[in-house]
Known about the structure:
Elements: H1 2-26, H2 37-57, H3 59-79, E1 83-84, H4 97-111, H5 113-118, E2 126-130, H6 137-148, E3 151-156, H7 157-162, H8 168-181, E4 185-190, H9 193-196, H10 206-220, E5 227-233, H11 241-244, E6 249-254, H12 260-271, H13 282-288, H14 294-310, H15 318-330, H16 341-361, E7 365-370, E8 380-384, H17 394-415, H18 423-438, H19 452-457, H20 459-483, H21 485-498, E9 500-502, H22 503-510, H23 517-522
Parallel strand pairs: 2-5, 2-6, 3-4, 4-5
Antiparallel strand pairs: 1-3, 7-8, 7-9
Helix pairs in contact: 1-2, 4-6, 8-10, 12-13, 12-14, 14-15, 16-17, 16-21, 17-18, 17-20, 18-20
The structure holds adenosine-5'-triphosphate and zinc ion (ZN).
Zinc ion (ZN) is lined by residues 350, 354, 407, 422, 425.
Amino acid sequence: xxxxxxxxxxxxxxxxxxxxxxxxxxxxxxxxxxxxxxxxxxxxxxxxxxxxxxxxxxxxxxxxxxxxxxxxxxxxxxxxxxxxxxxxxxxxxxxxxxxxxxxxxxxxxxxxxxxxxxxxxxxxxxxxxxxxxxxxxxxxxxxxxxxxxxxxxxxxxxxxxxxxxxxxxxxxxxxxxxxxxxxxxxxxxxxxxxxxxxxxxxxxxxxxxxxxxxxxxxxxxxxxxxxxxxxxxxxxxxxxxxxxxxxxxxxxxxxxxxxxxxxxxxxxxxxxxxxxxxxxxxxxxxxxxxxxxxxxxxxxxxxxxxxxxxxxxxxxxxxxxxxxxxxxxxxxxxxxxxxxxxxxxxxxxxxxxxxxxxxxxxxxxxxxxxxxxxxxxxxxxxxxxxxxxxxxxxxxxxxxxxxxxxxxxxxxxxxxxxxxxxxxxxxxxxxxxxxxxxxxxxxxxxxxxxxxxxxxxxxxxxxxxxxxxxxxxxxxxxxxxxxxxxxxxxxxxxxxxxxxxxxxxxxxxxxxxxxxxxxxxxx
Length: 523
Ligand SMILES: Nc1ncnc2c1ncn2[C@@H]1O[C@H](COP(=O)(O)OP(=O)(O)OP(=O)(O)O)[C@@H](O)[C@H]1O
Ligand SMILES: [Zn+2]
């Protein structure tokens, strides 16, 4: 290949020179020198063709070059390991005002570290974000780096345990070394519970070594280095005490699910660059998305846009958002479901039971009842609380249980037997009853506050109290359904026919059904 290339190089030089000389000779008499313009054109054509061939021949050299580039890329990648470019600032983080306010002090420390160092002030180097998933912990940490134009290093606790098996402790050291070298920097360790969970007294396993290294690193850097470490977890209760001690992760910030105002802000951020129809009212959407996290809301905004594109629309309307909410809450709609007629009947009564009890007790607003299978559910009722609630009374918790038992009670009332369809309902009911007894002191056992020793000793009595609550709620639910059986049949048969009813349709279908309230009092 090399020989061929050398010969071709010489030949091309020779041809090139001939063409050049043909031009200089041409200044005189072209015919005398034997270079007609036709010949010259032919010569240029042949040279061009050979040149292309020459370039093709050169390809292996290019590959070699590419390999060198790849090697360089790999070494760059190693250098950039853990490093992420922060693309957001506080403007991109909606709501969370109290947390942002607290973080302003940290930002000031990074931006004006000299001011603090002069005063000998020790600024918290370890901050712990804790709270449910998808509430913006990662986003917030990235925004701290963005606001301070710091280098941003991210790692996940589970990565140290799963990806870097055997070298977790070494990777932690590397992470801190890099961050110190690039200071000012922000280190973000997500899922910190994966390495920071309580150590076992007798074991010296790899996870413990990684955690020990993390503790060493946290203790190791002083105020001269402007490095702030932010950890995040959904399970703060699992963390080793040592990690939370002063000087380590000693500032704890709870990042919870957004309230209605924050949901509105988050939806605004995520619909900012999307063409919205005039029927989309962000404040209404915020009310309809109770209990959802920022990640859910960003998902809904994106899903609504995708649905609109799928329908060949140029703007996103409220109907697309409603479909997106359903998709996010209830899962994907099952295409061509094969549900037997008998099953469809059972599901219709089951969902009608939930919806009707919700209406009777006037708990949350029923937004939709459907027997179209979604995800693993054969039917579902979407209900949303009217307002954000922070305190609930015993009566309200019982009402919640009754709505959940409405499905099972309707099945028993109409068909005289039970089915497996109430599995999830029963799980949720048991959870609430357990909280009522063990956390809220709402049973005859009185105040308990989730004390593990007490729970062990009183195990049987706790069960008895929980059963008492659930049984009473179930009896009451069945009574209600008996009184309103006519309405139950009406909802179920409409569902059989139309498969879905929205909140307004349900209200219209029931009319002034509460007229029976007096009868119920007498039951
Ligand atoms: N307050 C918020 N403002 C704007 N967007 C938000 C907010 N909270 C969450 N989001 C959106 O949700 C996405 C996921 O959030 P993020 O990854 O920060 O949550 P997280 O709390 O770190 O979750 P996890 O605990 O599961 O790691 C973000 O990329 C963003 O699009
Ligand atoms: Zn149910």
